[in-house]
């Protein structure tokens, strides 16, 4: 069997109502040389029937025997991938038709030192389809130092050489959040990043992402920080992480822990202007405001 250029991996769990939209956005790509691997994390809804109802020979359906979490589900798809490039899509997000065409062409023209091409994306409200904002790519080349400070890359926009995973490893199942950030940071230690300036995906904001669940998000990010010593050992970089966690905790109804993080952040790097600027960006971001409304709703 001829190997496809791209292996698309969609991990899914109990989102049959959203999964079809994600699958159809892949099948509608202008670039057609791909396989689509849907990895079902032992869903209890009608996910198998949804996948079975879509007739396309490029779809491969894999069902795990027991629920194992997002990183294991993604890793399963990556291990089964046959393409030279891998693209990831969460089951609640969506690609625009130009996504693969523009990025495959870009990555094929680059040297092997480039492991990733990413692009821009819209933040979209799942509730009413309203566009909340957009993020356009800004950083290329050696992005490791920038990734220490912020995750500026949307997971539905990356096209990754498969060899990157062989060199840096797969997603870390020990992290309860920040798995994407951890993965991009590990890849950036060894490879350069490039981008296409177009919007290539829609990232849907709703109340069920890990980032809304402070019980998982904060411990996961704490573990992520401890894992990466270049964050832990740099007061200016660490202060950015602590202040962001503090603000999210404050706004989501955890004032005591939130203030603790903020005070610690300011004490360790009181003149770090970048920290204050990023705090203001987070507080005024329409996506963050939508997050907070959802957090408050789901924590009632």
Question: Could you walk me through the main structural features you see in this protein, from its secondary elements to its overall organization?
Answer:
The chain has 300 residues and is an alpha/beta fold. It is 45% helix and 20% strand. The chain contains 13 helices and 9 strands. Strands 1, 2, 3, 4, 5, 6, 7, 8 and 9 form a 9-stranded mixed sheet that branches. Helix 8 runs antiparallel to helix 10 (235-251), helix 10 (235-251) runs antiparallel to helix 11 and helix 10 packs parallel to helix 12 (273-284). The termini are far apart.
How are the SSEs placed, and which strands pair?
Blueprint: E1 6-12, H1 16-27, E2 34-40, H2 47-52, E3 59-63, H3 70-80, E4 85-88, E5 94-95, H4 99-108, E6 114-125, E7 131-135, H5 144-149, E8 159-161, H6 162-168, H7 179-188, E9 192-205, H8 214-227, H9 229-232, H10 235-251, H11 255-268, H12 273-284, H13 286-298
Parallel strand pairs: 1-2, 1-4, 2-3, 6-9
Antiparallel strand pairs: 4-8, 5-9, 6-7, 6-8
Helix pairs in contact: 8-10, 10-11, 10-12
Q: Give the DSSP E fraction (strand runs of 2 or more residues).
A: 15-25%
Q: Give the H and E element order.
A: EHEHEHEEHEEHEHHEHHHHHH
- Give me the count of strands: 9
Q: Mean of residue pLDDT?
A: 89
Largest sheet, described in full?
9 strands, mixed
Described by the principal axes of the CA atoms, the overall outline is globular
Q: Number of helical segments?
A: 13
| Helical/strand content category | alpha/beta
The proportion of residues forming helix, as a percent range, comes to 40-55%
